[in-house]
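Page 42, continued from yesterday. The earlier attempt failed because a stray header line got pasted into the input along with the sequence. Redoing it now with the clean sequence only.
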Amino acid sequence: MAVDPDVGAAGVGAQGAGAPGRVAEREATEAETMEELLAGIQEDEHTLRPLRPGEVVEGVVASVSGDEALVDLGGRSAGVLSLREASAEGTDVAVGDTVVAAVVQAEGPDGRVVLSTHRARSRRQWSRMIELHKTGEVVEAEVVEANRGGLVVDVGLRGFVPLSQLASVGSITATERGSVPEALRAYVGKRLPLKIIEADPRRDRLILSEKAAAQQLRRRRKEEASSELMEGQVLQGTVVSVTTFGVFVDVGAADGLVHRSEITWDKGIEPTTLYQTGDTLRVLVTGVDRERGRISLSIKRLEEDPWERAVRELALGAEVEAAVTRVMPYGAFARVPIGIEGLIHVSEIASRRIATPTEVLRPGDLVRVRVVAIDPDRRRLSLSMRQAAGNVMYATRTDQDANV
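This time it went through. Structure tokens are written below.
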């Protein structure tokens, strides 16, 4: 029978084209088979490798009898788990449950692997504590006990917060040091934000700090607040700390500093004499440093600058009553009614020559002065008692005191 050349060629061509496809399919099948073979070898090696004490394994509960559960470890010797321990950990064990436990003994007296859910949980918790120590994350923990040295807290493990690391406890009196201070007892049952400062599982040592957590939270609040606060905002705040260089005020989002130069228009005023912790006040946001997380505030800028009023109301040659605020070797400072201080030079205090201003003046004295110079740019006001009428009594005070 004759074969059509075209059909024959097509048939041969089809067979030839199909051959490489079958080869590729066969190679892929062989590759899959090889991968499965290698995976099986690795699984067998893992199964045959002896278990090590402390290793964490996973298994399925095969049976429960008395105080023990038999755990199928998938090809290895069966493991035995204490139901009493599991119950204490808050775990109810039933047939078919998957459990994670640590190896206590690779082979117990009866040839079975001795397991512990408590140790597995402890290992996981220590791993978590070590990671939190590295990252510096703040955690919250319940206070379960107080002693003379600090507080014991529960973070899945028992941790200790030394007295020196507590931010919310004041000084402990000498009479309390021999026993557990009442201030510490009051914390039992409360939850505190804490930062891990030491995590050493080998020594079973976990130390935490409330101070470090508070500092980190304040920094975080400042960073967040710096993106929200704007210069020119007027806020209500609470004084949280008073120092010689200024006042720290909690404005809700974060703490800001009112520098001593921004507290009052008066000069030479000590911040500690004006405010104390807990005072409420209004402040103006004068600066927000987003990179450094710093907030600058002002109290005095919410009031009119007395010098602006001085320019409007004071005139050269005017005579006013003034109260002496400070007496210095070179003269005396006195506050005029509009609220600014001026200097009465020693040469302008009395009509006679005096060695020191204290011969004539004391803080609190009311005197009549004449305005002899106003310098708004340098914020300086010069006054004279000698040129004002009605100050004869001060020129003769020393003689009167001597007669007394």
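Notes: Residues 136-171+181-226 form a domain with the OB fold (Dihydrolipoamide Acetyltransferase, E2P) fold (CATH 2.40.50.140).
Reminder to self: strip header lines before submitting.
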